[in-house]
Amino acid sequence: QPTECFLSRPxxxxxxxxxxxxxxxxxxxDILEKSAPKPGVPADLQNxxxxxxxxxxxxxxxxxxxxxxxxxLPANDLTHSFSSYLKEICPKWAKLRKNHKEKKSVxxxxxxxxxxxxxxxxxSMTAFxxxxxVLKLFARHIKxxxxxxxxxxxxxxxxVGTPGRVKALVEQDGLCLSSTKYMILDWNWRDQKLRxxxxxxxx
Length: 203
Description:
By secondary structure, the chain is α/β, with parallel strands linked by helices. It has a domain at 91-199: Rossmann fold. The protein is 36% helix and 8% strand. It has helices at 28-34, 42-53, 59-65, 82-89, 93-99, 115-124, 126-129, 144-153, 163-171, and strands at residues 108-111, 134-137, 158-161, 182-185. A four-stranded parallel beta sheet has the order 2-3-1-4, sandwiched between helices. The mean pLDDT is 86. Residues 1-39 are annotated as: Disordered. Pfam families: CMS1.
């Protein structure tokens, strides 16, 4: 009787094959979990700009990207609520708000990592903003044309949104930054994956 030829018979385990141990990839959340939250400092932003633009810019162009210390206000030392922090860095808000009459612009621009975080920040600045107009500048459920129309027709004092949508509005001439006096980066907040806004590659 001819027998079937098996390279390895069913059920047999070849001794020579040892399962290669899969190396566990380090996730960014594992690394970030170990680092304690600390207030952002101007050097953090400067380093980020240098890293991002360093490869394709000349030394002179990189020098031009450097912002002097006078451009920065104190960071939130993590003891303030969002409203009390804004009151501290912007004591003349009532006057600035009153004098702002330009359309297609905002006096204060708050940039954060997601639409949900934007809504959180808008709620938490109630004590600071008073009766001034706040515009949501994120993509979730809001078309860019709607935001451009609103900016064109009305006067808004504060814009809160995500980097991608803010960038798109500026590029499409929907948002003009000439009247913007303050830009707040939501630097320390972390999402469910423990990423800060600046840890997200797309940003």
